[in-house]
Amino acid sequence: MILFDEYDKTFDEKKHNCQAEMLSLFDGVSAGKKLFVITCNEIQSLSQYLINRPGRFHYHFRFLYPTADEIRDYMEDKLDKQYYDEIENVIAFSVRMNLNYDCLRSIAFELNNGLKFQEAINDLNIIRISQYKNIKIIVEFENQATLSGKIKEWQLYDNTITDMSIYLPDNIRPLSYVGEYIGEFPMNFSNNYIDKDKRMLMFHVTNPEPEYDIAYTHESQDEEKTDEGKKITDILDKLYIGQKIKRIYAVPSDQKDKFRFF
Predict the structure, then answer these.
(1) Is the pLDDT of residue 120 over 70?
(2) Quick one: pLDDT band at residue 132, thresholds 50, 70, 90?
C-alpha cells in the first residue's frame, strides 16, 4: 500500500498542475498489485480529474463529525467517572459547534484536571470562524398550539436570559399577515440540554407568560383594531391566553445527525 497523506496540501493544484501530473502516473497501474490511498482535508481542493473517477480511485470514505452518542461514548471512555456530569455540557456545546476528536481529546484532558466545561472552553483553541446563524425555536403549549421564534446561534450557550420575538405559525395566521409578530417571550439559555429520547435540544420551561403585543390584546379597544388585528386577538384568546407551556425546543435542520441544528 502506498499512502499519500494530506494530498491536497502536498500537491496544491492552485500553485501548479501537480495533481494532474501525479494522476497521469496512476494511469495503467491497475494491473499491478498495489493499493494507493490518499487523504485530504478539503475535498473541494482535489483535482476535478480525481473526483467521480472510480476508474482511478475506486472507493471514497468520508469521516464525519462525531454524533452526540459517539461523543458520549468517547467522553465516558476518557473521563474519570467523577466528571461524567460534564458530558451533557459537551454534547450541548456540540449542538452549537461541530467538535472533532482532536477537540474532544483536549476537552477531556481539561475536565480530568478538575475544570468545569464552561471554564475550559473559554481558554481552549476551539472557536467558531464561520458566520453565526439563526436557530428556529418552537414554544409548544399543553393544548399543542405553538409559537415560533428565532435566536442567534451564539446565544445557545451564553447563560443569559433574553427576550425572543414570537410569531404565529403559518397555518393559523391571517393570510395577509406573513410571519405575524405577536409579542416577546423570555428565553433562559442557562440550562439548555439534550433530550436523549426525543433527540432534540431543549430549554427549561420556567413557564413565563408571553408578553403579547398590546395591539392584539383586550387592552386595545376593538374599534381601534383592523379586521386582521381582531382575528389575531381571537386566535390568542382561543389558543394561547392562559395556556401552560409544555416544552421549548430548537428545530433540527435537515442534516444527517438529528442532534445538529445548523
Answers:
(1) yes
(2) low
Say whether both 112 and 158 belong to one domain: no
173 falls within a domain: yes
Domain that holds residue 74: 68-123
Same domain, 145 and 227: yes
Dihedrals phi, psi of 194, to nearest 5 degrees: -95, 125
> Starting from the edge strand earliest in sequence, which strands make up the sheet with 200-203, in order?
193-195, 200-203, 245-250, 134-141, 146-152, 161-167, 181-188, 211-212
pLDDT tens per residue across span 70-86? 999 999 999 999 999 99
pTM given for the model: 0.57
Q: How far is CA 99 from CA 92, 239, 260, in A?
A: 11, 40, 11
Give the C-alpha separation, 138 to 124, whole Å: 32
253 falls in which pLDDT band (50, 70, 90)? low
Q: How many domains does the chain have?
A: 3
